[in-house]
Amino acid sequence: MGAGPAGIYAAEALAGQDAVPIAVDLVDRLPAPFGLVRYGIAPDHLKMRALRETLRHTLAHDRVRFVGNVEIGRDIELDELRRSVDAVVYTYGAAGDRRLGIPGEELPGSMAATELVAWYCGHPDADRAGVEEAVTRARDVVVVGVGNVALDVARVLARSPAELEATDMPQHVLDALAAAPVERVTILGRRGPAQATFTTQELKELGHLAAATVLVDPADLATDPATEALAAEDRHVARNIAVLHEFAGHTAEPGRATVRLRFHARPVRLLGTDRVTGVEVERTTVDENGRAVGTGALDVLPADLVVRSVGYRGHPLPGLPMDGGTVPHDAGRVLRDGAVSRGEYVAGWIKRGPTGVVGTNKHDARETVASLLADVASGALRPGARDGDWVDRLEHPVLLPDWQAIDAAEIALGATHGRARTTIHEREALLAAVRSAAAAHGG
After folding, report:
1. pTM across the whole model
2. 18 found inside a domain
3. Residues 145-166: tens digit of each pLDDT
């Protein structure tokens, strides 16, 4: 249940073994597969997004069937689905955002990174009007958070139109970003540089922007015993700090936007009446337990757009247990009231939380599949008789040939703009591509 990396890796592991005869339905709420790779990885990460060319091989496996445009609670109830198959593996990710919990967070001009990312990736559920209204005003942007998604958001907003032209962003996204008046982007980290969670590769990319200069205040990089200890024991931390020291030597240049990384800075409230106009920030220190502690020193950053990027959170499916944003489990076996629920499994972010890189899902999915296969071998999971094919009861499923029609339509649309692909963002337009292909083939 979920055709992103975790679901596809689980399908790959199931289809690639011969100990148990198996058929896998790879189900997704959206008409298009690939989940995070299509709708989460920033479109200017061309090599990372090319991972879908590898993932698509699993979709074509003769033991795997892609079934898109299926929403639990709308097209089929979870109980009905469970009765229709021998086992369900939940792999639908963690698409919800975490909040800052500060005054002013509800003001127009304040949004979650999930909203902005969904928009620039062409997600069908993106709030196009709301995001574009905010982006068109965004001269001063504040991004709260120092993970990879925060850097993605800052980088995309600071890129020149020419740098984004080769991406598969929807045309309206490219047009809106080209017209955006962004001059300053400030990335706030509530703790020090040693506690930042971005990768060194992501950090280095900020230093190669064609129309923006990345800045760091040397005072934010002042060492202390705790930072020195972290850098000594963790090469990742040491590499990040080394790159930040390089950035600390940069100076702002006339005619170029700036991307400033600011550490020990905790937002305490968003300012404004009808919309965001600024962020009040408190200077912090890091205590012996690695927690940010306020010093009481305050200042204000101007801001037309504030983007919070402080973590993702899973949402429950109707009828599925949740515990703190993830599904409770034992080695991938879903737990209901503390006991293993026969025939229910979980993998990916909805299993372990939003951690790791895309490849982390492969190991995670294999653990879950190993549990499923072990249950078959032990007799804890037994195949049952089924009353027909559950997919036949769906009204508008999108199967592999339908997705191939969408794929072809996006490639054709991209060609009209001189690009390899342009993402079709509206659900109805995605389904129209399916209908058009079916009509052309006499379907």
Report:
1. 0.93
2. yes
3. 999 999 999 999 999 999 999 9
